Amino acid sequence: MDFELKNLDLIDVLSERHLQLRKITEKLWNDNSDMYLSNSEWFIIARIYKKQSTIAYVTKHVDISRQATHKFIKSLESKGLIEINNVKNNKKDKCICLTKLGEECYEKNELLKAKLEESIANEIGEEQLQHLKILLQSDWGI
Fold first, then answer.
1. How far apart are CA 95 and CA 87, in angstroms?
2. 135 alpha carbon, distance to own chain's centre
3. Other beta carbons less than 10 A from residue 73's beta carbon
4. pLDDT band for position 53 (cuts 50, 70, 90)
5. pLDDT band (50, 70, 90) for residue 94
6. How far apart are CA 123 and CA 2, in angstroms?
7. Which phi and psi (to 5°) does residue 94 adopt?
8. Which of 52, 120, 121, 123 could serve as 97's disulfide partner, Cβ 3.0–4.6 Å?
9. At residue 2, does pLDDT exceed 70?
10. Are 13 and 5 in contact (CB under 8 A)?
11. In the chain, pLDDT over 70 holds for what percent of residues?
12. What is the pTM of this model?
C-alpha cells in the first residue's frame, strides 16, 4: 500500500488514507460489537451527538443522497440508536437525537478511534502526528 501511495498526488493520497482509516474503524467497531454500523451511519451519528438536529439539517451536512440518508436514519432508529420526533410548529420536519444507547455507542467508537490514533502515533511519532493534525486543520485558502 505505501508504495502505491508514493505515486499519488495530494488529493488521491488523502482520499486513499481516508478510505483506509474508515475501513479500519468500521472493522474495529464491528469486531467489538454485536451491532453492525456502516461508515454512513457513523457520519449521521457524529452530526447529532450531544445535540438535537432536524433530518433536513443532517441530510444537508452529510455527503450522502437524501434517500440514502433517510434509509440510514430509519436503520439507526430500528437499532434503537436514535429517536425521531416532531418539530414544534412544523409539520414537515422531524427532529432526531441519539438515545442513551446511541451516545454509548458513539463514545465507545471514539475510544476505538483513539486507540487507532495512538497506534499511528507509535508508528510515525507523536510529534509528526500532531504536526499532521495541525496541517489538516489549518486554513488552506480553498
1. 6
2. 20
3. 21
4. confident
5. confident
6. 13
7. -125, 150
8. 52
9. no
10. yes
11. 98
12. 0.85
Q: Report d(CA 96, CA 62) in Å as an integer.
A: 15
Q: Domains in the chain, start-ordered, CATH in brackets? A: 37-137 (1.10.10.10)
> Of the candidates 12, 67, 72, which has an alpha carbon nearest to the alpha carbon of residue 40?
72
Q: What angle do CA 133, 135, 140 make, to 5 degrees?
A: 135
Residue 1 pLDDT > 60, yes or no? no
User: Cell triple for residue 1?
Assistant: 500500500
Q: Assign 3-state DSSP to the chain and report helix, strand, coil percentages, each to 5.
A: 65, 10, 20
Grid coordinates of 114: 483513539
User: How many residues would you count in the chain?
Assistant: 142
